[in-house]
């Protein structure tokens, strides 16, 4: 008996994903929850674990190929089974994956989702769920099935997975949980966090004996193994190569030889679509202002001298003053959307999810710090560092990339003074910070050298006018110019 696993909706209602790298090959033996493929959605790089134990019969897509959600991804048979004739036929079970609702609250109500979140946090094995079929029988399979739940497997109010197969009269109820004897020798790892920790530490989980319930491998087991041996190098996926052009291909417009053709897909396609939508829909305006930030740099230097390990970053200080400006001018933190009657409405929210423009190997991303207005400068610094690091590593969750209410764009490290950025719709505004350089500046009638940066604010003119946007920009600039005096106003 073989099982064909379909590409799941990995969250947020995405309809396709690119295969980045297969972690298994046809003929390999896989265990339940073993990572089998890396796929790139429009929002994240995700490892998909195997829901079955057995032999890989067929890989239904090539690396670099774009696959639709619900299409066959991999076929796994019983241990030792041949790959010949592995197409889905009678005797083959297909793990069907209904579309995700994309709603976090609804997903939390699904039986498996809460267990999965608890398992991720605690590193314990989730309890198996039971889903009833239409005839009152337990829906499932006699084959080994994963105890973990991947976000996007099933929808709220329905069974977590549904299986389509030829009906067989008189067949007994199938199990949703694997037979312990069928997985003899397979490492019992259900936590993605434990698997990730093992990869980072170079620990082979197959060589470990778990100390958790029923032999479950825990964080402590991985850490103990890592301390007793030198970590091994963990392979990293190679960047996607440009597609080679056909020999002798000539560009019809210029007459030059074509050396490469790279499909616009994945993150790059989403970026292109998002920016094009912003340009089409938003009448954006950019205002800019030069600011003397010498005092801000001196303040940060003083804080660092007192506590070098815990001093707030410059971006953390700028973010804190930006949040103060958004509290004073809340319309800059609003958005525009169509109401129930189809008419546009300006929506203001209670709180700020501060977006951070981040350049990554996969393209420009804007992860956000949730409820940034509640954080101190020190907490903001830590949250910004963590958010940016995870985005660059491809580990930002889809929700982090879509929940922002206002964006802070620090393009100074790129070496530019200013820019006219495109708004991250449906947000209303974006604050930009250029490089800080020495410039001649008039202070008390004297020309002196000061640390100066250029600030810009880009805003949606449908929602706010130049007076409000300029007042917001001026307020933040005044805070950066004289941070000590600003403390009395924030």
Protein traits:
six-stranded mixed sheet; 2 domains; EC 2.3.1.-; seven-stranded mixed sheet; 24% helix; OB fold (Dihydrolipoamide Acetyltransferase, E2P); globular; lipoic acid binding; PSBD; transferase; 490 residues; alpha+beta; Chloramphenicol Acetyltransferase; 23 strands; Single_hybrid_motif
Overview of this structure, please?
There is one protein chain. This protein has two domains: 185 residues, RNA polymerase II/Efflux pump adaptor protein, barrel-sandwich hybrid domain (OB fold (Dihydrolipoamide Acetyltransferase, E2P), Beta Barrel); 219 residues, Chloramphenicol acetyltransferase-like domain (Chloramphenicol Acetyltransferase), CATH 3.30.559. About 22% of the residues have low confidence. Helices cover 24% and strands 23% of the residues. Strand 14 and strand 15 form a beta hairpin. It starts with a strand and ends with a helix. The protein is an alpha+beta fold and 490 residues long. It contains ten helices and 23 strands. Strands 13, 16, 19, 20, 21, 22 and 23 form a seven-stranded mixed β-sheet that branches. The longest helix is centred in the middle third of the chain and has 16 residues. The chain is globular, with a radius of gyration of 27 Å.
């Amino acid at each position: 008996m073989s099982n064909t696993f379909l590409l799941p909706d990995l969250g947020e209602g995405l309809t396709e994903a690119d295969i980045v790298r297969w972690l298994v090959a046809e003929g390999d033996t896989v265990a339940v929850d073993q990572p089998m493929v890396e796929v790139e959605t429009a929002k994240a790089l995700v490892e998909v674990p195997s829901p079955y134990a057995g032999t890989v019969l067929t890989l239904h897509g090539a690396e670099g190929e774009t696959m639709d959600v619900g299409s066959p991804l991999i076929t796994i048979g019983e241990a030792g089974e041949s790959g010949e004739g592995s197409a889905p036929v009678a005797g083959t079970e297909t793990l069907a994956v209904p579309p995700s609702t994309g709603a976090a609250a609804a997903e939390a109500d699904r039986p498996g989702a809460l267990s999965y979140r608890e398992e991720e946090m605690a590193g314990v094995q989730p309890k198996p769920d039971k889903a009833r079929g239409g005839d009152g029988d337990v829906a499932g399979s006699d084959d080994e099935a994963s105890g973990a739940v991947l976000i996007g497997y099933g929808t709220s109010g329905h069974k977590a997975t549904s299986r389509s197969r030829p009906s067989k009269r008189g067949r007994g109820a199938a199990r949703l949980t694997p037979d312990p004897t069928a997985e003899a020798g397979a490492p019992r790892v259900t936590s993605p966090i434990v698997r990730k920790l093992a990869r980072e530490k170079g620990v082979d989980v197959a060589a470990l004996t778990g100390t958790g319930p029923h032999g479950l491998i825990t964080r402590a087991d991985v850490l103990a193994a890592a301390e007793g041996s030198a970590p091994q190098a963990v392979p990293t996926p190679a960047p996607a190569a440009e597609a080679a052009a056909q020999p002798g291909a000539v560009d019809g417009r210029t007459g030059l030889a074509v050396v490469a053709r790279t499909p616009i897909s994945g993150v790059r396609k989403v970026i292109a679509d998002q920016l094009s939508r912003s340009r089409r829909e938003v009448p954006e305006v950019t205002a800019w202002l030069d600011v003397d930030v010498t005092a801000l740099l001196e303040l940060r230097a003083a804080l660092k001298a007192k506590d070098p390990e815990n001093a707030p970053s410059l971006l953390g200080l700028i973010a804190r003053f930006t949040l103060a400006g958004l509290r004073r001018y809340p319309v800059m933190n609003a958005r525009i959307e169509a109401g129930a009657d189809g008419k546009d409405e300006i929506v203001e929210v209670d709180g700020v999810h501060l977006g951070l423009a981040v350049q990554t190997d996969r393209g420009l991303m804007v992860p956000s710090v949730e409820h940034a207005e509640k954080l101190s400068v020190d907490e903001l610094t830590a949250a910004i560092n963590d958010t940016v690091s995870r985005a660059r590593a491809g580990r930002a969750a889809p929700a982090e990339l879509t929940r922002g209410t206002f964006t802070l764009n620090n393009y100074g490290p790129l070496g530019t003074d200013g820019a006219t950025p495109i708004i991250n719709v449906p947000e209303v505004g974006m604050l930009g910070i250029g490089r800080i350089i020495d410039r001649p500046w008039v202070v008390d009638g004297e020309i002196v050298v000061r640390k100066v940066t250029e600030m810009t604010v880009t805003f949606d003119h449908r929602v706010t006018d130049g007076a409000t946007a300029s007042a917001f920009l001026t307020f933040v600039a005044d805070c950066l110019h004289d941070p000590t005096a600003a403390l009395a106003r924030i």
